[in-house]
Hints:
alpha/beta
Amino acid sequence: MLDAPASRPNFHLAKSADELGMCFADVVIVLASNQLFAPYMAVAFQSIIEHVDPERHYDVVVFTRDFDEKTRKALVDHLAKANVPNVQLGFLNPERALGDTKFPHHGHFRPETFYRLLAPWLLPTVQKAIYLDSDLVVLNDLKEVYDTDVRGYLLAATRDADMQGQISGYDGTVKAYMENDLELSDPMRYFQAGVLLMNLDAFRQIFSIEDMLELSTRRLWRWLDQDILNMLANGQYVELPMRWNTLMDWKSLRREHIIGTAPAETQKQYEEAREHPAIVHYAGPDDRPWLYPDCDMANYFWDYASRSVFIDEISSRLEEWQNSLGGKAKKAQIDAIYRYVFRFFDFSCPPGTPRRTRVIKTYVAIGGDIA
């Protein structure tokens, strides 16, 4: 096993990578979160530390601007009690790199999603790093992803099965957006950016942090920084097996209605990934397991949540959501939209029809959010 530094980094919010006191000699993992999402990010972290190889060393860096001291200390203390000496945890504030930049975002997306674009410069001595969204759980050792050879490429990622379904007819506006706005040579090569192995050296050689900030604020991209990364790679990336980013069946619509519209080979890969997932990703604006404990693949989340440091907070939020008048009303509204409105839309405007595309274009034109 690689020797860990003599002392575990403390729980302060570092302003630079040097302050983290990490060796960055082996597996480097990056997460990004705000204070509100910290309990759910902690579940992702719990799943990571339960699948590490004792012969390897893992540095986990959380990009955050607002984790309070209590949250940081709770996570560091929990790691110490877990007795995983080959894992180190640190917190890095991206403020110095951001300056006064305000990232445009919409819907369920948060500004923290852009932080992955800054990783090459926030971690200037690190050659490559795994980036993970915080709304997922890891079921296998991440060393397999980290050991992927990305020389000559910006990154490794999985193809986006959901997006392939959108392009193939579920949403007739997506293909044109990718060809005209993102200028992708092959939209079907669009990848899902919730799990990435980033070649940080390659990013630094080709782009500057000013490039990233300019692209991020140039306009409101439909899928924000994921679109930017896809533009930069333009289909040239190392493809990871889909099991390393297995999308849950959001609202029981994604699997049958969206991915069900994708090419047969994509559907086959998705079903195989569901049989043996290495990472389960709860991607979507809602239907997340912490508020919908009966949603698809929620059992994986609650298994790791039960051993995570903020299980009491997670359970309390769920109880409030389920029992409060506001929570019940919101849940009823969301369920009605996806159970009835979406299904009626699919029936009256079948995927691949000009009518469907016209309706979606009109909805977007009047300010509707469909990302």
